[in-house]
Amino acid sequence: MPRFLRSASLLPVLVLVFACGFATHAALPLATAGQPVAEIICPADAGPVLAYAAKELQEHIAMISGATLPILPAPGPAAGRIILAVQPVGFAADREQIGDSDGFAVRQQGATVTVLGNQPKGVLTGVYKLLFRNSDIIWARPNTEFGTIFTPNADLTLTDTDFIDVPATILRGWQMIGPGLESDVWQYRQGSNWSSRTMRDDPETSHFGCVREFGGGHNLTGLYIRGDKYFADHPEFFPFFKGARQDPRQIRMRTQLCFTNADMTRAFISELDQLVAASPDYSTYRIMIEDVWQCCECPECSKPITLPDGAVVAPADEDFRSTQFFLWLNQIARHFQAHYPGKRLLTFGYFFTETPPRITVEPNISISFCPINKNSKRAIDDPDNDVYYRRFLSWMKNTTELTWREYFGLCGPFPRPMDAIAIADWRLVNSYGVRRTYSEMYSDAVGPRMDGVASWNVNAPYFWVMANANWNPKVDVKALRNEFFRRVYGPAAEDVRAFYAMIEKAFLAAPGNSRWNDRAQANWKHVVIAGDLVEPCRQALTRAAQHPLLPKQQRMLSALRDQFDAMIADVLAMRVFATKVATPPTFDPTFATEPWLKAKVADAFVLSRGEKPHENRTELRVLYDDERLYFGIRCFHPDPANMPYRKDVAAGNRFPQGEGFEVFLQGDWDEQKSPFVQMVIDPAGNRYAGARAGKSWQAESRILADGWSAMLSLTWAEARLEPPLPGAVLRGAFIRQFMPSPQEGIAPSNYAALYGSTRHRTQGFCDIVLE
Prior knowledge:
The protein is of the alpha/beta class. It folds into four domains: 22-161, Chitobiase, domain 2 (2-Layer Sandwich); 171-474, TIM Barrel; 501-573, no CATH class; 575-770, Immunoglobulin-like (Sandwich). Strands 25, 26, 27, 28, 29, 30, 31, 32, 33, 34, 35 and 36 form a twelve-stranded mixed beta sheet that branches. It has an eight-stranded parallel beta sheet with strand order 14-13-24-23-22-21-18-15. A hairpin with a 2-residue loop joins β16 (240-241) and β17. α12 (418-431) runs parallel beside α13 (452-469), α13 packs across α14 (477-489) and α16 crosses α18. It starts with a helix and ends with a strand. 48% of the residues are buried.
């Protein structure tokens, strides 16, 4: 059992809001034989959030019972009623306990049940918890067809009407990646009070009552100092990098700024003032570094920093760029405090600012700490994550305003048990006073980066547990999971639970780290297939399907079973076949001659940021003989004349820019850090010999009318592999580099990998079968 789960049992466990309470009053009927016998009271001047809460309560009661309760501004003739109230008279003790949070209380007096809070958002969340505790409803996933599950009850009655719940967090939520409002609505029903949608003025989100922050995500050059406004006249505002000032419009992820430029700082403050004037109702304004590492290399930005106390921060120091950035941001924060007291700035502790600066940040700056490379198989205080834990502790010495910002919901269609990790992390950081947390999660939709539906098909239990537990992390992970399985799968709960338990145990025990961009196929292969779990998992799901289930329960189970079968089939098909030849092949750029005609073509190259195929076809062919392995590569392109690549050819190791192709081949190396060779070629013939490759491997390339081709080869000895035997299985990765538009002199911005294979990480390599 992982250490974080063992230690969790020693901590005080909060009584779950999901547990059935004890009725201290007579039951309050809402419907009898599908007819309404109660009413909902919502003041006429309640505002959009309370009005929405009343509508949600009405619609869900009707959905469960068939009865539509009237919504009235004052008590009417019904025998019972539910009153929705913000800061009502007569509940002083509850209101004091709730304080300035979005907590809530539910109290019954005679035939009246009051759902109350000090904020409208608290009343909305209280409505959902009232429904949850008095029926078997669960918002299992955002899917509008079958994601909300319940047993119809024409005689719906309230029996659990005396409870209070105050969150441990003042900000909690999920940055949903992908289209559709449904995924945000889903998380609000679990208790979230923040989402990426509430960072902009949007009428469709005004009735959710969420915390609102201005400015969105990475925004230095996307919102404040924009290239279209400033670059032509002030290129010096932007970073000097690789010999030139960088125009953010020409870089896919934009650029940072030249943080030592005083004129840029004044322009930035002016832009911020204009934005605050145009949107004055926010309490938090975001100033977030762009999603790139590259910082300005101009003489001023590259020289050592001398601090007020005489200490010097050298350019090679880990905290150099972070110190430089916060010296700049502190200037803006002091202006902000002078002109907008009570408001705060939010910025990332991410990439070069993940390391705290060697100065104290201004108190009106909040830090959104993002340990993106943390091993997600382990909690933050695990030795595997020592560097990120130390950075977190250092930040806590610098600021009392830190948001724990994670990537727990960014995973493909493999069931990663991130709920236990997330809860352990939230519990720990909350013990240090952190009261804000949010994470990224794929929406339950097909988006540009990921098929979120496929991820939800297998991750719904973990996503649901996380979305409920960030209200207060002092919860029991197993109890929350069991609640999900019981409500979603009914009599099949035990079999579905067994399916997940097998995979979880193997996943946590498997070697290697897990990060936000894990390849689902690699996990299925190395955890389930290699662990001989395919049949036990399939049998568990088959047993589950034999139980009598409600239609929506059946749909949830079918989605899980179908995704499991599809992933196993996909992974088993993800193999490259190498054909043995009697005569060494020569380079035929079209591969239309023997022996290349015998080779099988592998062409499933998918984008690194998602699972979509690369729009330009790529083909790989592999041959072998007793001496060498031969790789034939065909990279199609619609406009070879303007295809971006390094056109000058030079001797020595030159990693391609723009178009290029990488081959990784795992061998029997003593050292385990890089047990592979790496060979790279570009259209002009520039070569790069990476780890282990040496200098004797061969490569040539040629530009064609429809793209470019290359051939690479090396001996078995150079690959540190035994002489070949037919049927043997090698392992490798095949990567096509590319750029979406021609940009001379700029490093490649994306790549497509065969079967989603991964660079430098052998657990993400694919199989090469010697025929």
